[in-house]
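Hey L., structure's done. Input below.
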Amino acid sequence: MKPPTTDGALGMRESAGTALVADRGLLGRTSTAERVAAVLRTRISEGFFEPGERLSEQEIVDALAVSRNTLREAFRLLTHERLLQHEMNRGVFVRRLAVEDVVDLYRVRKLIECAAIRSLTGAVALDRVALAVAEGDRAARRDRWQDLGTANIHFHQAIAALGESPRIDELLKGVFAELRLVFHEMADPRRFHERYLTRNHEILELLRAGDYHAAEARLSDYLDDAERQLVGAYEAKRVAGDPGTSARR
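Output:
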């Protein structure tokens, strides 16, 4: 794994070993591959692992106190989810997504998130949405732009959860983990994430007012703009000669 990196005012990234040791308690008494995969998926969605990063079996085995067989099965699960990729004689790496992946991710998000708002009638509980907005505000005040990206993901997870479908919630865990890998392509995380915090506030207020039609329209425009911005970043890297953004791997 890579040594600690910096992200603006975020400071030094905690070591993989230290971070994953803290996750050991999430595994319970039986460290199944599914639980290990869930821990790693969460860490990917939080931006802890970067695209192209090689994952050290030994470091993760030691940190989570699991067997190599269990970890390898977790790797296989996450490879199936398109979060990791195995390279012969080199190891397991966090996948770098291509521009086609970005377009498809946003197609899925628009179908699910906009439909969740469209399905609303009457008064709804918005506590989870409000908590995600407040989380974003705290991150912005502290200039923690990577954390703001995580808060934005939590906001959209909360929007999708308004549809009250456990299956959709489970599906979107992988979608948002992939999305975090896309966010890494943005050279300036503040410039990308900060503008959408204001829109999160606007959507929350429309939901509170019960104006679900306007909230859906605002969300649709929001997702269209984010997709265009990310596709533009990929195109700029492709023109600059970065092969990792030009085609599927």
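DSSP finds ten helices and three strands in the chain. Residues 22 and 63 are 8 Å apart (CA to CA).

-- N.
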